[in-house]
Each structure stands twice: as C-alpha cells, then as structure tokens.
Amino acid sequence: MTKKKATGERGKKADDKPESGTYEIFVMGKMYRVPMGFTIMKAIEYAGYQYIRSCGCRAGFCGACSTVYRIGDEQKLQFALACQKLVEEGMYLVQIPFVPATKAKYDLDKLKADENVILSIYPEIARCVSCNTCTKSCPQDISVMMYIQCALRGDIAKAAELSFDCIQCGMCAMRCPADIKHYHVGQLARRLRGKYIDPVSKNLQTRLGEIEDGKYDKEMEELVTMDDDKIVQIYRDRKIEAQGDLEGGD
Amino acid sequence: MELLYYPGCTLKTSAKDLEATAMKIAEVLGFTLKEMKEWNCCGVVASLTDDDLMHHLAPLRNLIHAQDEGADKIIVLCDMCANTIKQTNLRVKEKPENLETLNSFMDKENDYLGGVNVIHFLEFLRDEVGFATLKKKVKKPLKGLKIMPYYGCTLLRPREVAIDDAEEPRIMTDLLKALGATPIDNPFKIECCGSYHTIDEKEATAKRAYKISNYARKAGAEAIMLSCPLCRYNLDVRGKDAEKIFDGYSQMPSFYYTQLIAIALDLDIDCCGFDSQEVDPLPLLREKGVVQ
Fold first, then answer.
1. Are B281 and B160 contained in the same domain?
2. Are B74 and B156 contained in the same domain?
3. Are B204 and B191 in contact (CB under 8 A)?
4. Which domains does chain A possess?
5. Mutation test of the interface with chain B: which of A7, A112, A153, A175, choosing the one with the most B Cβ atoms within 10 A?
6. Whole-angstrom Cα distance, residue B135 to residue A55?
7. For residue A3, is pLDDT > 50?
8. Are residues A220 and A150 in contact, defined by beta-carbon separation less than 8 angstroms?
9. Nearest chain A Cα to B60, which residue?
C-alpha cells in the first residue's frame, strides 16, 4: 500500500528549535511573540487578551476552547483545544466560541432503542457522504464519521462507544458539508445505550440510595466550610481508585 | 472458502432476512461471507453529475477498506450498494485523474489501486457457484410455485455495471428453474418499483406496486421474486397500502431470491424472517406443500 506524501508540510520542525525562547504566533492575523511551552490559551492571554468566551475548564474536558489554526503556509488546517495544545512557531490562530447546532427535542423515556430511532430524530445523518472531514476536525481524535455511519446502520452501541470521548466542542458540526450535528447524534447514542442497552449498574443503584439517605452529607458539609489550605492538603493526599472498597462491579 | 462481504446499512436494519438467508446459503455451498471489518454507507445513489466527485467518496472508501483487508473482490447483497460501488469502481478506472483527486482528498487513507472487484451475490451464484451446482443441492424443489422474477432498475442499469441484459434479463428465470419453480415472464419485470419516492410519494409508490403485482397475477404468477431491499419494501409495505386504494385488491407475497433458495435447500425456515413481512408468504408455501 502506498502511503501518501503529506502535501505542503513546510513548517519548521520543533526539533530544530532551542528548548527555550519565544515563538511568533498570529492571533486573528496580528503577530505576537510568546514564550515557548505555553498552551495556546496561555499564549493568547500573555498577548494581552482576556477571555470572556472560548474558555471553560482549562483542563481539556469542557470543549469550550476549540481552536482552528494553520502553521505558516501549510496546506492542512488543524484543530485543537486551546487549553491543551502548546503553541508552535508560526501558528495562525482563531477560536470558535460558539457552534449554532441545536439539540433535537426528544423524551428519552418514550424512545425505543431500535435500528431507526437515531435516523428518525436526526434524519440528516443520511446525508453523510463519508468525506471524513468531521474526523479530521476532531481535537479528541474520535472516529466521528464512523460513529455517524454506525448510527445510520442502527448500531447504537457502537456509535456510543466510538463517540465516548466527545467533549462537544462542535468542530465536526462546523466543518460538515452535509450540515450534520454529529455531537448531538453521539450524545443520543450514548443516552440510548446507557438507558436501554447496557446492564443496570449495581454500584450506581447503591450510590443513588446512599445519596437519598444522606450518607455523606456530614462530610460534604465539612468540606464546604473547610479552609483552603486544609482542603488543598486533603486533595493532594487523596487515594485514587481505592481498590477493595468496591464490592463486585459491572 | 472465505469471501469478503460488504453489507450496507439496509442489511442491518430493514433487510436482515436477506442477510441471514444469504449467509446460510453461502455456508451450505461451502463459502463463508465474512463481513468487512470497516465499512460505511455505499453512497446510496450513484451521482449522475459528471463533476461531482464528493459522492464517489463513500463507495471509494469501501473499496479501500476491502483493499486494506487484502481482498480482490467483495460480495454485495443490496442492489443499490452493488450498483453505486460498481459505478465508482468503474469511474476511477476510466478516469485516473478523478481517482487522483479523490485519493489526495482523503490524505491519510491508503490510495485505492483499482484491484477490487464488486460482485453481486446473485452474480456470484450464477458465475462462480453455477446454477447447475445449486440445482444439485436442492432438496425441496419448489414444484408448482409460479413466480414472477422482478429485477427493478439497479441490477440492470446502467449497462456498464449490469449483471445481465437490461432489456431481456434471464438470470432470475434461470435461478427459478434451477430451484424447480415455474418462472412467469412478464414485461413488468424491469419496471421501476417507485424507488425512494416511497418516502414522499407513498401513494404513487403504492400504485406502482399495484401495477406490477396486478400484471403478474394476470399472467398467472402467485408470488414475486426479487433481490433489491428497496423494491421489496415497496412491493411488500407499499403494496399492502395499495389494498386500501384499490377495492378488492390483495397484494401478492414477495420473496428475496435468497429466501427461495433457503427453502429449496431445506434450511431452517426461521432464517427467512417471514414474520417481518407485511404480506405473509407462508400460506402460499403451505398450500403448495413446500413447507409444512
């Protein structure tokens, strides 16, 4: 099989650069010199901008800071989360603070997880021409086109699995030539799978019962009123995935 | 022997019975239909616009998936999928400059090298298995069953990708003979079923179903044999709707050719999925003594 030559990768490689110093970046066409090692988000703030939109959790989870960029005169347009991606030399940046893609209205309790349910709610998925532009625009490296294809053929479980890492930044929906609102489709697939396909989680039922009974209310109250230094210390000392505390599982 | 199989969306939704019966038949004939690891929608309708390359991406992507699995051919069950993928395969062979554009658009995928043949399952049964061989495997000849072969459009048009003569096809007649049934020839065998008008022109499609089956009945047929899932939907579901339009009309049952082969090979009748059909063909089969 022949692997295609990347067309127009004329940007300089990071390896050729010294380890410290500055990069020249362009924010909406205006040039700034920013320290190396900064995320795009930090670099833009360093350049003097203050975020009022296009910024959320700053930890790669919320999907608010989707960023489109091109390095120099490279052919490929690239996509990233500003809070995760480090700046590179010659980046031309723009951020997309909002995606006009309304979620369809549906009552999950009234749906049936059958082959045509997603198609009936989002019929536009049938317009997919398999161009794969959505996949190329996903900062999470999700096989977006493939999960749309799975939704189209009624494979809800697979559509849910493939779209699991979606943070709903909406870049797929902005790039799609068929105007599909992919991330809402993935969300519907995951909801259907969670409600109708996957087995009911025993731990979840137990935990819901605990919440109802107010099992940790006292501890929660303590945390809320605790002073900052102490809570930071507790956070640092926390145990992750304490094995043995859980009985069984799903 | 293992054969790489491209299903298509319809085979996973409304035409599960076509897939189930084809799988079983293949097994009896010594083949395994192995579903492609990755596949996407075929593209549904081959674009007639000369400069519209975007609509060749879906079929081409499937050809690349097949190539990546090392296959030199794929077996396709759905007529529309076979038609669309065959047309793109032909197009990129005839116009290498188009293939170059498409390959370069996809950038990360492997280039398509043109080495995959697209074969409709019906074609495969005729050319690679042979109806004579199939005939020898028949355990329950479909004696006394008068059936109109119905081709619809996409098996036979355009000529470049047709599996038989567009005006006088005989592949289904030959198959019916091999299974011991009585084929009823009929000029309506190559008429359109109404195709995707079934979505926005339900009544017009119901009238098509009426016209086709009514003519078949007059010619002495008791059922229709077809291959395309969309034709089947229209002749079954829209045909049932026609009963409300035309007084005293009752829609005749339709079979996928694979269902009839499955019956003739005496396979478990459950794989035929007759209970999912609007017009139940079982009473006819029982009347003819083909099934109990």
1. yes
2. no
3. no
4. 17-95 (3.10.20.30), 108-197 (1.10.1060.10), 202-236 (no CATH)
5. A153
6. 69
7. no
8. no
9. A130
Q: Which residues of chain A have a Cβ shorter than 8 Å from any chain B Cβ?
A: 1-4, 6-7, 115-116, 126, 128-132, 145-146, 149, 152-155, 177
Number of separate domains in chain B: 2
Sign of the Cα torsion A71, A77, A82, A84 reads: negative
| B55 at A interface, C-beta within 8 A | yes
Q: Are residues B147 and B282 in the same domain?
A: yes
Full domain range(s) for residue B259: 139-287
Q: Out of A16-25, A217-226, B267-276, which region has the weakest mean confidence (pLDDT)?
A: A16-25
Residue the block writes with tokens 């019929």: A123
pLDDT given for residue A4 in this prediction = 42
Using the 3D structure, point to which of B121, B156, B191 is the last residue of a domain. B121
**A232: Cα within 13 Å, side-chain hemisphere:** 3
Output the pLDDT for position A246.
52
CA distance A14 to B14: 52
In Å, how far is B108's CA from the nearest CA of chain A? Answer: 7
pLDDT tens digits along A143-198 = 999 999 999 999 999 999 999 999 999 999 999 999 999 999 999 999 999 999 99
Cis peptide before B158 (omega within 30 of 0): yes
- Spans in chain B with pLDDT lower than 50: none
Helix (H, G, I), strand (E, B) or coil at A25: strand
Closest CA to B99 of A135, A134, A4: A4
The pair phi, psi for residue B4, each rounded to 5°, is -75, 130
Check pLDDT > 50 for residue A2.
no
| B273 and B234 co-located in one domain | yes
Q: Which one of B10, B11, B13 makes the best mutation probe of the A interface by having the most chain A beta carbons within 10 Å?
A: B13
Considering the domain architecture, whether residues B186 and B53 belong to the same structural domain is answered as no
Confidence grade of residue A6 (pLDDT, cut at 50, 70, 90): very low
Closest CA to B41 of B89, B80, B87, B98: B80
Residue type, A174: M
Per-residue pLDDT, B107: 81
